[in-house]
Write a structure and sequence with these properties.
- This protein has 335 residues and is α/β, with parallel strands linked by helices.
- It has 2 domains: 85 residues, no CATH class; 201 residues, Rossmann fold (3-Layer(aba) Sandwich).
- It is 39% helix and 26% strand.
- Helix 5 packs parallel to helix 10.
- The protein starts with 7 loop residues before the first strand and ends in a 7-residue tail after the last helix.
Length: 335
């Protein structure tokens, strides 16, 4: 009859004060119960203990129908309404491409458990905050490819993010290739705002595409690049070689990030460069980008009301009729 309690409202809730009459009526009925029936004097009631008939039991429960009738009629007087809400959302969506480094150095353990897992987790949290934006995913190492095209289905995107692993792309750090692939995904977008979040932990050493040339192309298409260098300062444990069975061998290496290049790319395209030294700073970086690239959202709500008092009025009359019919027919008291 009615939907969720959150969608129910009452036009005349003051009528609920009448519910206070119900315990008074119950007390009055109990107090006058014995006066309704003439007493019969018997020498002993021992033979009648616990011998009340089914008919007698049903008759004694008739007042329950009257109480239910009054309860339903009081609710009907309060005039319950069911609210149907419809929203129209007008959003100036932002198209965002996440370009993520998958080179083996992303397994470095200066982040726990490693840079890649932390990057995936923080990026997924960022995606969940961008409800109305189209977001895609590009991955790169020695080469680059699109893992997920621009989509508003963020559940699917986060599934792709969660399954990212190092070693699925040729080894290396082709920053230019990753950036160019992300630009290619955004260049034909009609969105007023186009953004690339480029995350890497190394120095460009692969691919045939110059990072600065890719940045110039991004600028031509009004694509803003936020570059993130991820890695601590000094030395850390990271893969130094790989066994024949595909397992990485870890050793101590120096953390090297081409911050100058990343800063130039960001400045050329109107974005910013950030350095993430730990998980907390990476979270703050994504929060900062989220604030800088806010989506303009206009929400118009429409509410429709459905009158539900008729159902309760019908129940109230039904319970009352049942009580009267039963009392004066099958459950009639014999004088």
């Amino acid at each position: 009859m009615l939907g969720s309690l959150e969608n129910i409202t009452f036009v005349n809730p003051a009528f609920f004060v009448l519910l206070l009459l119900l315990p008074m009526i119950a007390w009055w009925y109990y107090r006058n119960y014995r006066q309704r029936y003439a007493p019969i004097q018997m020498s002993t009631l021992a033979g009648l203990e616990n011998k009340q008939s089914t008919r007698g039991s049903l008759r004694s429960s008739l007042p329950i129908l009257r109480v239910l009738s009054l309860l339903a009629l009081i609710v009907a007087l309060a005039r319950p309404q069911l609210i149907y809400t419809q929203e129209e959302v007008v959003a100036e969506g932002i198209d965002i491409s996440l370009a993520m480094d998958l080179s083996s150095s992303m397994l470095a353990q200066d982040f726990q458990p490693n840079r890649l897992e932390v990057s995936k987790r923080v990026a997924a949290d960022f995606v969940r905050q961008r409800q109305y934006d189209r977001i895609g995913l590009v991955v790169f190492a020695g080469e680059a490819f699109t893992q997920c095209p621009l989509t508003t289905d963020h559940h699917v995107l986060n599934e792709f993010l969660s399954k990212l692993e190092c070693g699925v792309v040729e080894e290396g750090t082709a920053i230019g290739m990753g950036l160019a692939t992300a630009v290619n995904r955004l260049k034909d977008s009609e969105s007023k705002s186009k953004v690339i979040i480029l995350l890497t932990d190394g120095v460009n050493n692969g691919g045939y595409q110059s990072p600065m040339l890719a940045a110039k192309i991004a600028k031509e298409y009004n694509i803003k690049v936020y570059a993130i260098g991820i890695g601590s300062v000094g030395e850390t444990r990271a893969p130094v070689s790989i066994r024949g069975d595909g397992e990485y061998i870890f050793g101590t290496v120096n953390v090297e990030i081409d911050e100058k290049l990343l800063r130039q790319i960001a400045e050329l395209t109107g974005g910013q460069y950030y350095r993430a030294l730990d998980e907390q700073s990476l979270e703050q970086i994504y929060t900062s980008i989220d604030q800088l690239e806010k989506t303009k959202i206009e929400v118009t709500s429409f509410k429709r009301y459905s009158e539900e008092y008729r159902h309760f009025a019908f129940l109230g009359i039904l319970f009352l009729l049942m009580e009267v019919l039963l009392r004066y027919t099958v459950l009639r008291a014999i004088p």
